[in-house]
Design brief:
This protein is an alpha+beta fold and about 475 residues long. Helices cover about 30% and strands about 30% of the residues.
Length: about 475
């Protein structure tokens, strides 16, 4: 059994008092920590403000190249004014408290900020981010503390539910948001979006076309067009006289066009009395390889490995290469071509089952082919056990070869075989020759499996030990 030590009732209450006092000490120690760190945060915000001022100077120095650039620059300046107005409101509230330290530590400003002070900045940021190309936005909205508000793509400023920020953190948060906003605005104006995509804008007073800068498309490619309408009026869009049906999302309207033939196209969008025009071309896909011309050399019976250049196409699986003059093995964009005959190889590029492009290669008689000595089982052996002479490539067969024996101090002896097999006289020649005799195999003729093309084998020699 466990052993216990008996204490008096007086000692028991003494221990209880000590425990209570220790607990009070811990509580007071926790509350006596230095919380003046919040007074340093506004100074950090001043550092960001200096950065933002430099970015604004760059923005003011930027010279717009057209009406759309001028409109975008003016909008950015309006958003910057909204940031200043929000910052001024915070500074006025802080001054009203007599620059009280306790006010910086409290969370009242964030709690009461919600609608009145945020609304102007929120509206301006919404107008700005809607003009920013959707293809390049990524997580930009989240970095600006913008959360999706409704199905029309309108955002609301949101610092996150349940986050109790001290008032002193507000200048730092606002400065970081403005820095991100100004940096992305300059990237947009300089056409240096984060996706690497350039942006082309065509605009009139109340209508603007936003799309990736691309004046040529490939046949079969789906072409998206997005329009920004200030008055939320859906534009009438036609391409070469054909009206497109679009989908509207508030002030944005999306249209998709899939060209059925190559050629020049003209897009016309009309909104009221205003008309916007854009021209582009549609071309057929080309059969291109990543290899240079010097690397593309086809030989009869020998595999030629090439890589299709499909980097510009969104669906490489829609492409297939075929030919009636060669065996084609395709895996993705990897292509293996094995010519059956000497002459032209006509290649066809099929896109979605239709011929999109043609290309011609030339298959030549191969250079010297590698051959080997093999025994009756087909294993590679030396001359002592040789049964026949075979090509390394299964597409070729030896039909004739010549062997010359160079014996020390004697005249060379030459024998010829009109098949791939070793004659009995050749075996006797090897067996009766002294050591250090050199046997040279030359004039090796081969024929391709097509029965027409001939080739030559690599000469080689063997020294008897």
């Amino acid at each position: 059994m466990a052993e216990y030590t008996a204490i008096s009732q007086k000692q028991f209450w003494t221990f209880r008092k000590l425990s209570f006092l220790y607990l009070v000490f811990i509580i007071f120690y926790a509350f006596s920590g230095d919380s003046n760190y919040v007074t340093k945060i506004p100074k950090s915000g001043q550092t960001l403000n200096e950065l933002n001022q430099r970015l604004l100077l760059q923005l003011n120095d930027y010279q717009p190249s057209g009406a759309e650039d001028r409109h975008y620059k003016n909008l950015v300046l309006e958003v910057a004014e909204a940031f200043d107005s929000t910052r001024s409101h915070f500074e006025a509230m802080h001054a009203k408290t007599g620059f009280d330290l306790a006010w910086l530590k409290s969370i009242t400003y964030f709690k009461n900020l919600k609608k009145k002070q945020w609304t102007g900045l929120q509206d301006r940021l919404n107008e700005w981010i809607q003009l920013y190309p959707a293809q390049a936005r990524g997580d930009l909205a989240a970095q600006l503390h913008l959360a999706a508000g409704d199905s029309n793509g309108i955002y609301v400023l949101n610092l996150g539910e349940g986050n109790d920020f001290p008032n002193g953190a507000f200048p730092l948060l606002l400065g970081e948001m403005e820095s991100r906003f100004l940096l992305e605005s300059m990237r947009y104006l300089k056409q240096e979006l984060r996706t690497g995509a350039l942006v082309n804008q065509i605009s009139v007073r109340n209508l603007q076309l936003l799309q990736v800068l691309k004046n040529a498309y490939y046949l079969g490619e789906s072409i998206p067009f997005r329009f920004y309408s200030r008055d939320s009026i859906a534009p009438t869009v036609q391409i070469n006289g054909m009206t497109l049906q679009g989908l509207g999302q508030g002030i944005f309207f999306d249209y998709d066009f899939e060209p059925s033939a190559a050629g020049e196209y003209t897009l016309q969008a009309q909104c009221g009395e205003e008309t916007l025009t854009h021209t582009f071309s549609v071309v057929k896909p080309k059969l291109r390889f990543l290899e240079s011309k010097q690397e593309i050399a086809a030989y009869v019976g020998l595999p030629l490995d090439l890589t299709l250049d499909l980097s510009e196409y969104s669906k490489p699986e829609d492409f297939k290469v075929t030919s009636t003059d060669a065996q084609i093995i395709q895996s993705g964009n990897s292509l293996r071509i094995i010519a059956q005959e000497e002459g032209r190889i006509n290649l066809r590029l099929l896109y979605q089952g239709k011929v999109a492009d043609l290309r011609t290669l030339v298959a030549l008689r191969p250079p010297h082919l590698r051959v080997q000595l093999r025994d009756i089982t087909g294993d590679t052996v030396n001359i002592s056990n040789a049964h026949c002479l075979e090509a390394e490539s299964s597409s070729w067969q030896v039909i004739q070869f010549q062997i010359t024996a160079y014996r020390p101090g004697a005249e060379p002896i030459t024998m010829k075989s009109n098949t791939r097999f070793f004659r009995n006289e050749m075996h006797r020649l090897y067996q009766t020759s002294p050591p250090h005799t050199t046997f040279v195999f030359r004039n090796i003729r081969l024929i391709n499996m097509n029965g027409k093309t001939e080739g030559l084998g690599n000469p080689f020699f063997y020294v008897k030990s």
